[in-house]
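Attaching the record inline, Q. Sequence:
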Amino acid sequence: MAKGKAKSGLGTANKVLFIIFIILLVATIAIVALSAPKVPVKVDNGGGSSTSADASVIGELTPGTYGGITFNDLNDVAAFYKEAYDYTKSLTAQYKNADGGTETFYKFLGEDDLTVESILIDGKDNATINNLAPSIMGGLFSKQVNGLPPAKNKNPELDKDDEGQDFRVSYLTGDDLLAATVVDNGDGTITLTMQPKETEMSVPGKDAQGHMFSTLGDIGPTVASISVVSFAQGDYHDNIKVTYKGGTAVVKINTSTKEIVEAEYTEMAYVNVTHVNITIIKDKSASLTIKYWQKFPCSEEYMKTEKGITLA
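Structure, as predicted:
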């Protein structure tokens, strides 16, 4: 009887240890993609699994004139979005910080949230792990206030990556888009809904997903640097996959000023880890779905609560 209890306890400990490893992947997203630095109509982001075909979850573009703007193809959608993005991120406002000082940030700031879904260990769902994940995530994910993605900061002067790539301008092109739709709202605004093409290990500002979202880049070296982690076969290149697909951006734009007035970005990432060893755990696989959501503009309450700033 005692042996049975010990065995059960060891199994639970193994599961907890492994989920902590999986959450470390999510923490990397928060740290790398977000810390350096979620109303518009919501879209059903079905997306599917990492192995399903990349397909539109928003429908297809109907060429025509919307709010006085002509859209013949995806190139026109991307070009108009870039024009609105670049203009909106040229606008700044004054904010008071927690110390009473004044700072200059983007006029158009957003709030965010992150959830972990569909956690599978060796292809199987586990209720204990699913129950643990939210509480672990609560201590790892730090909410941010940033400019339009793939922003690294709320301060325009700091909105760049380590290589100096400027995120005050958009790099989105028609080739980045899998699908898009346009709606004339009848009030001087139009709403673009865009879905970028599937990308593996997306890097902000470098590819289709990274032109639209604050993706996390190549997390392989970060995970491989964790001392207790090794692989039963191959290395992190072979065994860590992060597939971005099925995410959407819903952006409302004033057609006369070209200013973005509302936006909601729903980024979907499918993480798959195979043949991983973590101390006493050998040759395991795990997968999960990460949903990262940003809403613009953020509320004054959110800014004050999360970052201690208010409009001056």
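The chain is about 25% helix and 30% strand. The two ends are 67 Å apart (CA to CA).

More tomorrow.
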